[in-house]
Amino acid sequence: MKKKERLFAFMLTGAMVIATVAGCGSSSETNANGDAEEQTTSITAPQAYPLPEGEESSTSLGVFEYDQTYYVTLTADDDADIYYEVAEGEDAAETPTTDSQKFEYEQYQLIMLTQPEASSEGDVEQVYNIKAIAVKDGETSDVANWNYTVTSHPHHDLKVSAPVDSEGNEVSDVTLIQDYDNDKMYLLEGSERAMVIDAGYFDAEDQGNLYETAREIVGEDKPIDLVIAHPHPDHVQMTHQFLCEENKALGGAVYVNERGIEVLREYVLQFGVESGMFSSEDEASEAYDAQLKTLSNGDVLDLGDKQYDIIELPGHQVAGIMLYDQETGYLFSTDQIGNNRAHRADSLWMQFGDMTSTFFADPMDVYQASLAVALERLDTLGEVKVIMTGHNDVALLGTEYIDNLKQAVQQVIDNGTEGLHTPLNSLEGLEENTMTSVVGERLEDVNWAAVNVNLENYLSDGYRDGNQDKLADLCNLSVHLPGTKGNLLWEDEAFGVNINWDYPSDGTKPVRKETSDFTAQVPSGTEEIELVPTACASDATIQVNGQPVNSGEAITIALDEADTVISIVATAPDGESTHEYTVTVTTK
């Protein structure tokens, strides 16, 4: 079976393909006597993903509500060419011919079905009709015909349900709340407190109320904390609602990483006043300060009988954090990792470049180092079993997605722009500067991964435009006692969330560290430590105290009675560029 036959055979079962005649791969004509004569063709009609609502055949990729702008992918067997027509209205599209628009699947083309303008009075529906043919070697398939109904719900209407994983099972003890853009928010309840992760979009002309929605579920007595996992506009706009007098009196707090304090304040002021909750920006700012708390690595949010560990992961946004539940293995990553919907052709959005001083995404070498530190912290806490993100319609299972994400990042670091794809989905105005690194098949594997990057900053300065072989950085350096997990360098403030870059507390761009000297403290009497240096580039080499070592592998180092100084030198793939790190091991 050829690749595309293998990828999309699963979509044939239950497909809502209405051919121009009965039977796929056949057509009928009449002879001189008026009798029907069946003509056959070996070309199979195109398939579509996703299929119209109610006809989806892949539960592992999600069963969707068509209440947002939608994107349809067409596929054909045997690498046949696809031509299609699209129009508003049931069965309204013209019959396609080879003069119709050609669908370029290999370039990740998508047919956009735009969501109709919403009304506060009720649902608004728009039917779209797509017709398509497959053509190969002069033969043409029957016409495939799909009718999609795309709905806009009122913006005040927040959807409440249980998250569903990629096997179709509900995720226990988590409530999923979605805004009118299907941005995901999660309500978690403990014996003493409740918590909502992120605060979605808000329309002052047709107001939804996230706080009241959560309060109806939680009841009257518990405080409801709001955690903003990163202050991008689609995750923060109902923050002001949690600053109400009721929640303040109960002790409810609004949490954000310190690098996001002022960005979040701007949204609180804007929507707090626009909503009518506050009479002025000064009043909104005062309420914000009264309930504001910060979160960073090592913090634990305690809801009573449930605890959530905080892991910082800047990159997509500089104040990004994730929350991990050791008891269940649940990881709430919002947009820090994940967001790989097949039907929207989403990817990890890192294409923001240098839009403003506080709105940007990190280059891949910077993000890789932050990701390595965050994943090591996760590894010390437990196994990731379920990942719930800010946009995925199904929860991801296990760590396969994380492995694919690391590989997608690695491809950019090792190869630069070579092998990158045109964007699966990009922000308007950024299409020409956006490229995508892809790992896995998005229409087959729920754990496929992709990263959007901006050609102006896909790698940090000095490493772009064919110079990626000069990258000599380590992406992580771990020191631990033999047989233990964790990293003793985490206690050194100079190490931070990234081995090579400092993140200013005001939320502006990271800057190169002036030194790569770190200190690890060990208990008195410790005779040896294990050191694990990991290079950014796959073809970089590493020496420890002048001896070659393998990237990512632990080596044992005997300690002196006094301080032990360890030299680590990474050499870039070009064989010339180097970066030296020093670790001094001292006794507590």
Topology:
Layout: H1 3-8, E1 26-30, E2 36-40, E3 47-49, E4 70-75, E5 81-88, E6 101-103, E7 111-113, E8 124-136, E9 139-140, E10 144-152, E11 159-161, E12 175-178, E13 184-189, E14 194-197, H2 210-218, E15 224-227, H3 245-250, E16 254-256, H4 261-274, H5 281-291, E17 292-294, E18 300-302, E19 307-312, E20 321-325, E21 330-334, E22 348-350, H6 364-381, E23 386-389, E24 396-397, H7 400-415, E25 434-439, E26 449-454, E27 474-480, E28 501-502, E29 511-512, E30 517-522, E31 528-535, E32 541-544, E33 547-549, E34 555-558, E35 564-571, E36 578-587
Parallel strand pairs: 14-15, 15-16, 16-17, 21-23, 22-26, 30-36
Antiparallel strand pairs: 1-2, 3-4, 4-7, 5-6, 5-8, 8-9, 8-10, 11-12, 12-13, 13-14, 18-19, 19-20, 20-21, 23-24, 25-26, 27-31, 28-29, 31-34, 32-33, 32-35, 35-36
Helix pairs in contact: 4-5, 6-7
